Amino acid sequence: MELADITSKAGAHEKRKRVGRGRGSGHGKTCGRGHKGSGQRAGGSIRRLTEGGQMPLFRRIPKRGFSNAPFKTEYDIVNVCDLDELFSNGDEVTKQTLVKVGLLRNDRVLVKILGDGDLAKKLTVLADRFSKSAREKITAAGGTVSEIGNSK
Domain range spanning residue 139? Predict the structure, then answer.
């Protein structure tokens, strides 16, 4: 086997278009951009939602009221049954331990413990929020509950 015999898979690498290399290349003169207009100009792209001469939809629709969406507090949810499944008796449950067992992606999110399922283990749980049923189930199993952080 020679070094020249080694080839990549057919179609795995597409040759780049070399524009402005003369008429014979097929991409000379206007370089495939056509004549005149914003599509032909450098840096000239049409804004999204532009409708020609027509008034754009987002300007035609009336804006009323208030949306709380930018100020919404979102929590990652962990159920009591998940804690029972993944932790052993006497363990301390924190954001870091939840990340280690795979229930959270990272420890910078807000966590709320919900009371879905049963808990038979004594756990010390630290989270941002607890539902009433989760708080009752953890304390009934002999564990302790404590809220952390300055969440709303």
Answer: 70-147
